[in-house]
Specification:
The protein is an alpha/beta fold. The protein contains eleven helices and 15 strands. It starts with a helix and ends with a strand.
């Protein structure tokens, strides 16, 4: 009987040590803060679009080209991509429905490409911790399964401002803006553009017309017409459609496109476009999920990462010397000797921001630019 009891106790001890060892190993595995690796064949990517990629130009098209580029680079099949198009980002119910449909269809990574999806994605990320949510623009994240991504588009804006400043003859340049001064994303882009203009043409003014909508084809058209009526001979934009470029071409003047290369839409007008190559981010993000290196960190890339740039200059209509001027500044951005928001900057209300010898930090650029450069006027 004693031998039986001793054997039983020994087995209990072995079992207890094994269980403790397993628990310790589990703790060690989850302490890295990274996700578990996944087979690429098990990945399903959902993407929520405010418009339709079939439009062939503009904001949604640029994002979807990024998804296509990611898919090709990582070798994903077509059935691993779930698209929800024309989802109104001012309608939380429509946003939630689109996201839940992606989850029901098996998506384990979901990209929301427009600002207005942010709050809904933040809430659903808490309900579905096994799904990775990634939000384009905005500022919210939870450092685990919900991050945000954007980039230094102001670098490309500055370069495009040089192109516009050298081209204008009226010294009046129009800018169709989706949002007003309270939105740092839009306002920072306007300022970078105006500073680029000012660097080569101190006499030029930038007139801004706000649509108060991220996607409104009719309002974008009307805003461009209003700026043309003011005498603007170059029309830039931070809005989703190529409509401002089309209006510029109709009026026989010039334009600076946005999101995708809009020279195909208005070849006689578009001098260049500030463009995104979203595949730089989408590939990085999904590759991290596959490799188990996803950490939930936010992403903020620029020209160095290949995320932003300007499209090839329209050699037939740009001003003489434009290519050389652009390339000089491009190199200074890439080598870090110039950061756009450097030093003391004069605002249009007579104040200044920034400090001599310093540059605005990323947090200020993404969330704290609620002022306009000295040459900007809102119409």
């Amino acid at each position: 009987m004693k031998k039986i009891i001793m054997l039983f106790l020994a087995l209990v001890l072995v079992f207890s040590l094994t269980a403790c060892g397993s628990e310790q190993n589990a703790t060690d595995d989850t302490s890295t803060g990274e996700s578990a690796p996944q087979e690429s064949s098990d990945i399903k990517v959902g993407v929520i679009h405010i418009g339709n990629p079939a439009d062939g130009s503009g904001y949604t098209y640029a994002h979807d080209q990024g998804i296509v580029g990611m898919q090709e680079t990582l070798g994903l099949e077509d059935n691993q991509i779930i698209r929800k198009n024309n989802v109104d980002d001012t309608d939380p119910t429509a946003t939630e429905t689109a996201i839940l449909e992606c989850i029901e269809e098996g998506a384990n990574v979901i990209f929301g490409t427009s600002w207005g999806y942010m709050d809904t994605m933040a809430a659903l990320a808490e309900e579905y911790p096994e799904v990775i949510f990634s939000h384009g623009t905005g500022y919210k994240s939870n450092e685990t399964n919900f991050n945000n991504y954007f980039g230094r588009i102001y670098q490309a804006r500055y370069l495009s401002g040089i192109v516009a400043g050298l081209k204008t003859e009226s010294n009046l340049i129009g800018y169709v803006a989706a949002m007003g001064q309270e939105n740092s994303e839009v306002t920072g882009g306007i300022n970078a553009f105006a500073m680029g203009v000012n660097s080569v043409n101190p006499d030029a003014k930038v007139y801004v017309k706000v649509t108060n909508s991220w996607y409104s084809p009719a309002e974008e058209t009307n805003a461009a017409k209003a700026l043309l009526a003011e005498g603007c001979d170059v029309i830039a934009q931070h809005c989703d459609t190529p409509n401002p470029q089309l209006e510029a071409e109709k009026a026989g003047v010039f334009g600076i496109g946005y999101n995708s290369d809009m020279s195909k839409d208005a070849p006689k007008a578009t001098l260049t476009s500030a463009v995104w190559d979203w595949s730089a981010y989408y590939t990085w993000a999904v590759e991290n999920v596959i490799n188990g290196t996803w950490t939930g960190e936010n992403y903020y890339g620029g020209m160095e990462e290949g995320l932003v740039d300007i499209s090839p200059l329209n050699e037939a209509i740009i001003a003489e010397g434009t290519q050389e001027a652009v390339e000089e500044v491009r190199q200074s951005i890439l080598d870090g000797s110039f950061n756009v928001f450097d030093g003391v900057i004069e605002t249009n209300d007579g104040n200044t921001v920034g400090e001599e010898g310093k540059t605005l930090d990323d947090a200020t650029i993404t969330g704290g630019i609620n002022w306009y450069f000295k040459t900007v006027t809102v119409k």
